[in-house]
Design goal:
Oligomer: single chain
Radius of gyration: 18 Å
Number of helices: 12
Distance between the termini: 31 Å
CATH architecture of the largest domain: Orthogonal Bundle
Largest sheet: none
CATH class of the largest domain: Mainly Alpha
Structural class: mainly alpha
Number of strands: 0
CATH superfamily of the largest domain: Hypothetical protein, domain 2
Length: 222
């Protein structure tokens, strides 16, 4: 990319960041800001997969009222965890995963959450996006750009990337976006994607970056 293009990208990120301050942050970011605890971020992120933020918030609060450390969590039965996190998506599977992960954290990492992407993705049920979120909002280290459907879709709509999967989008964005902006991009674009640049019929008439956006793939907008 040309230097001018990079300056334009940074300007867009800053405009969106300022705009989304009127909305609540995604729940996992909120939990990271409140607790400063990588374990809380890891568990809440696992709960959030395929689950609405409102449901994740209630489930996380109920579960953390019972246990806040891997050792305490391991002391709970699977039915206890299931009851606390219901009705998050795949709550049966997630309850088992939480127990398995806590066992590994205690046996291999002395109850601490690993501080590298490579170690985090070795935990069962933890993909690269979840690992990146734990690094960014749990350990406060912007070593990747956690890329979910919102980050993937918005980056393609802006014409920054031409990719088919979130994994390929992350690879492309890490080559394109200056590193100081990596940590915040997921939080900014997820919030933006939940409220303005929604998946179907985005609110382009209310968008602060509309004049910079080629609206790639947008068939209808509001």
């Amino acid at each position: 990319m040309k230097k001018m293009d990079k300056r334009k990208i940074v300007k867009i990120i800053q405009l969106v960041k300022n705009d989304v301050r009127r909305f609540k942050n995604p729940i996992v970011t909120q939990i990271g800001e409140l607790t400063k605890d990588p374990f809380a971020v890891l568990i809440s992120c696992l709960l959030s997969l395929r689950t609405k933020d409102e449901t994740t918030a209630v489930a996380s609060k109920k579960l953390f009222a019972l246990a806040t450390t891997p050792r305490q969590m391991l002391g709970l039965s699977i039915p206890q965890i299931e009851k606390a996190i219901y009705p998050v998506g795949f709550y049966h599977t997630k309850a088992r995963r939480i127990k398995e992960i806590c066992k590994v954290l205690l046996e291999k990492y002395k109850g601490k959450v690993p501080e590298t992407i490579e170690e985090l993705v070795q935990l069962k049920g933890v993909g690269r996006k979840t690992a990146g979120i734990v690094m960014c909002y749990g350990h406060n280290k912007g070593v990747s750009i956690p890329t979910d459907s919102h980050v993937h879709q918005i980056s393609n709509r802006l014409g920054w990337v031409q990719t088919k999967t979130p994994e390929k989008t992350e690879e492309a964005l890490m080559k394109l976006i200056p590193k100081p902006y990596w940590r915040d991009l997921n939080n900014i674009f997820v919030t933006f994607g939940q409220h303005v640049c929604v998946p179907v019929s985005p609110f382009c008439s209310q968008c602060v970056i509309s004049k910079y956006c080629p609206k790639v793939g947008v068939v209808r907008s509001r």
